[in-house]
Amino acid sequence: MRAYVVWALIGMIGYSFTTLFVKLAVRTGHISSFAVLAVATAMVAVSSVATAIMRGELAAVPSPANMVALLWACATGLSLTIAVSSLFRALALGPASVVVPLYGMFIIGGAALGVLFLNEPLSLKKVAGLTAAVAGPI
């Protein structure tokens, strides 16, 4: 199995448990979705920075050549902030069985953006898989 498939499966499992843990945390009414997000985000930030430092991938001062990549990283942070904040708020307000399939449609958006902007090939097999992903929750 290709490494990226393994990592994608690990990510899928992690996001699946994230949904469960958010619902368990907020259902008592003693903690808000944004408090849960603050704790979770702090944990992700600390572990990500520590990993990047240990791997020697985080320069103290980015070189001019890396500025474009740094700007894309900032755009990533902004879009992820919006996405995850919205997910946690939606989970606090509604049932996971409705929220998760709707939120999961980001898979279609990400695939479409890859084809449109990254020149990734679109095969009949990929179209069939994306169609199945859309039809599944219906």
Please write out the topology.
Blueprint: H1 3-26, H2 33-54, H3 67-93, H4 96-103, H5 106-117, H6 124-135
Model description:
- With 138 residues, the protein is an all-alpha fold.
- Helices cover 76% and strands 0% of the residues.
- The protein has helices at residues 3-26, 33-54, 67-93, 96-103, 106-117, 124-135.
- The radius of gyration is 18 Å and the shape is globular.
- The mean pLDDT is 86.
Please report the distance between the alpha carbons of the first and last residues.
30 Å
Largest β sheet strand count, sense and barrel closure: none
What is the domain tally?
A: 2
Total beta strands: 0
Q: Estimate the strand proportion.
A: under 5%
Please provide the ordered H/E string of secondary-structure elements: HHHHHH
Task: Calculate Rg over CA atoms.
Answer: 18 Å
Task: Supply the helix-strand structural class.
Answer: mainly alpha
- Gross morphology: globular
